[in-house]
Amino acid sequence: MSFVIAVPEFLSAAATDLANLGSTISAANAAASIPTTGVLAAGADDVSAAIAALFGAHAQAYQTISAQAATFHAQFVQTLSAGAGAYANAEAANVQQSLLNAINAPTQALLGRPLIGDGADGTAPGQNGGAGGLLYGNGGNGAAGVNAGIAGGSGGAAGLIGTADPVVPAEPVRPAGPADKAGCCTATAARAATAGRRLSPAATAAPVVPAATRGYSATVGPGGSARPARRVPPGSTP
User: Fold this and answer.
1) Consecutive H or E run containing 106
2) Could you give the angle at the alpha carbon of 22 between the alpha carbons of 19 and 24, nearest 5°?
3) What are phi and psi of 142, to 5 degrees?
4) Gene3D superfamilies given for it (predicted)?
5) Local confidence band at 236 (pLDDT 50, 70, 90 cut-offs)
6) Per-residue pLDDT reduced to its tens digit, 127-170
7) What does the DSSP assignment read for 183-230?
8) Superfamily classification of domain 8-111
9) How far from chain centre, in Å, is Cα 186?
10) How far is residue 116's CA from residue 104's CA, in Å, rounded to a whole number?
11) Domain limits of the chain?
């Protein structure tokens, strides 16, 4: 595997030199345009006129090619400058991250949180977001839940200056559909019948005839009315 070593300062310097070279060539082409494209004939004969026209045609063709070359040169310089800027930004980001890691290393080791920087976002389903820096930084976003109805991960805690991200809401649970009918017909259970036969209303008891006084007898007449009692001598049948 081959490695490419690039120095952004050298690339920027090369792009600047090429831009200056292109400007010099363009100025020279512009200065030579009028004298070469408008060549006058040396004499009034046809040969002189033909030679002048030939030189003028070559000069015009050269100007066309030089314009195309100038366009390509400008694009090349622009690409080289962009590459130099990309290398410079990448190195600056690496230096910044290295410096940030050096600053956060003590607090990360002692308290489990960085001093400066945003917390990492949760990646696994339901994972909580990372905590932000103690001094400055926003909390990371919590990841969404894997199943419906289960809340996602909590957002990471923010630092002294920062914003904590909210908990990811749970996905709504779909309402259950109507129950399917059984294979056979079902019926509602009938009400339980009253056990036993219904009792008929109690018969009214007949009036009790008072017992006759000893030595007297009474005959019950129709309708339950008693006749006057008469005395029965002892030893006789009433």
Assistant:
1) helix 46-111
2) 110
3) -80, 150
4) HP0062-like domain
5) low
6) 788 788 788 778 878 777 766 655 655 655 666 666 665 555 54
7) SS---PPPPPPPSSPPPPPPPPPPPPPPPPPTTEE--B-GGGPBPPPE
8) HP0062-like domain (1.10.287.850)
9) 46
10) 7
11) 8-111
Distance of CA 215 to CAs 124, 175, 176, 224, 230, Å? 115, 94, 93, 22, 9
* Contact between 148 and 174 (Cβ < 8 Å): yes
Distance of CA 93 to the CA centre of its chain: 29
Give the 3-state secondary structure of residue 161. strand
Q: For residues 201-215, b (16+ Cβ closer than 10 Å) or e, as one string? A: eeeeeeeeeeeeeee
Q: How far is CA 219 from CA 15, 90, 209, 213, 227, in A?
A: 153, 137, 10, 13, 6
- 61 vs 52, 90, 117, CA distance in Å? 14, 44, 60
Cα(214)–Cα(205) distance, integer angstroms: 26
Place of tokens 């904590």: 164
Q: Residue 27 is which amino acid?
A: A
Give the pLDDT score at 169: 54
Left if phi > 0, otherwise alpha if psi is -120 to 50, otherwise beta: which for 227? beta
Phi, psi of 52 (to 5 degrees): -65, -40
